[in-house]
Amino acid sequence: MASAPQQCRAQRPFPVAVDRGIGVRMRDGIRLDADVYRPEGDGPWPVLIMRLPYGKHVWAAQGVPSPETVAAAGYIVVVQDVRGRFGSHGTFSYGDVEGPDGADTIAWARTLPDADGTVGTFGPSFLAQVQWASALQHPEGLRSILPMVSPNDSAFDGYLFRGGAIEFASRLEWLVGAIGPDAAERAGGAVAAQFAREAADLASGALHRIRPLRTLAEGDTALAHGCRIWEDPAALAAAAETTRGRYAEIDVPVFLIGGWYDAFLGSTLAQYAGMRQAGRRPVHLVVGPWSHMEAGSRLGEVDFGPSASHESMAPDIPLGTQHIRWFDATVRDEARALAEVTPVRLFVMGENRWRSFDAFPPAEATALELYLAADGTLREEVPESGEIAYVYDPQNPAPTVGGATLAMASPAGPYDQRPLYDRVDVVGFTSAPLSASLTVIGGVSATLYAATDGTDTDFVVRVCDVAPDGTSLPLVDGIVRASLRDDFGHSGWQGTYEPCPVEPGRVHEYRISLWATAHTFLPGHRVRVDVTSSSFPRWDPNPNTGATAWDADRTRVATQRIALGAATPSRVHLSVVPS
User: Fold this and answer.
1) Is residue 474 scored above 90 in pLDDT?
2) Taken in order 185, 189, 193, 195, is the CA torsion positive or negative?
3) Higher confidence at residue 520 or residue 241?
4) Fold of 366-577
């Protein structure tokens, strides 16, 4: 069961005063703008910092406590516009300055009146990215970080790319919808007018049309900036400081929060694993049935029950209050606040309850492999040799229907996949109805033996729960760009090795990470694995020609063959625990 509720300072509120528009000078002289929320009472107080590119007034995210709430719990709270955004001067970038700027902000915050010299940081998404960047600077006084839906273990695993494919919709919409408006206002004139046109096209869906990305890269606009990013991914990865391989450098406690349908779940779990492997303690993890933007009781077409909501999380305390409990323990050194809290709390979908573990994946997890068979079944034994073929046309890609997306064009969550099943480019493999519950908690991956008659292509694998009424809800998925696998067939390209040639007609082995889940397949339900070659607009459609989406003026239809059984045992790998 989940951890017992703990008392924390949120239950003893102080009055709060706010000082707005406070200038903070960086080491290069650039002035950043901050609002400071102060508890009115006898200090001194620890300081908690939130740095964001969306405007100091746009702090709100489901599950994140407001600055007023945190200040009322006895913390000075600094909310700051990052460089080049809203009230702050300078030029905005993807993150190459956030480490130094964060460290300088921490040094300044420690000198605030009534500050006690200790600092913590919190916030989701980009606000999580800048926390890691600051921690890697080892600023004096930083005691704890709390990154939520954190993207930056690697730019190539769900942040900007996934398995070699571009995270097309999420980057497009973030650049135009989230970053564009303030950038347009700063630029003015013709550029502002172009931004307005892009925003209108985004709302209408016109920006998601299939075309070479370079045809979008005209003018000094958010979209053009994004296309230049895609043209040179290695340069971007160098600019967007990542945490992969650097966890031994993080010497503060970390509380990670994620969602099973968050577009950055892979990075969040990789950061947890990296901290554990580096021997860093404490590191806590909470993952709910949430997306990047939503943390309620309902997501997609599923109501997970009231305890799933960040406002409840029963029998524990609400997520916002867990923030304060964490900082009470790790910044104030009130160890009793976490004394009875298990470090890993996961919402197990299907059975729809929170379960607690000492680590992720759970120590009791065992491996289960399910094999794809030529008759469309999914089974525990290796089937006889066979194959299934389908035709993939990049001009008619399979549409994105839910999943772990970050796109207005394709909302995240468990949406019924049956609308895809009449397509000729989606093939499915389904188990027999289960006689007993099957609980999967941990990593999920696929080994696929496949061939194409193109010179490059993509393969997408998705695992679904099929209910007795036929509803097929997605749990996890992943993609591999055939030419960007490594020598062992793995996806997870890091932009650091030469592409592997794709020999048309030859069966290659592909190992595809589907990230992870916590889900119980109930009796009578079936496990289904779907294989296809696209999910648009989530990922850019592969033109099958060996060209990149950047400059693909032409595409070709490809015939894909999935080899099954015997010497080519295509299968999924599950991590199973007792139900």
Assistant:
1) yes
2) negative
3) 520
4) Jelly Rolls (2.60.120)
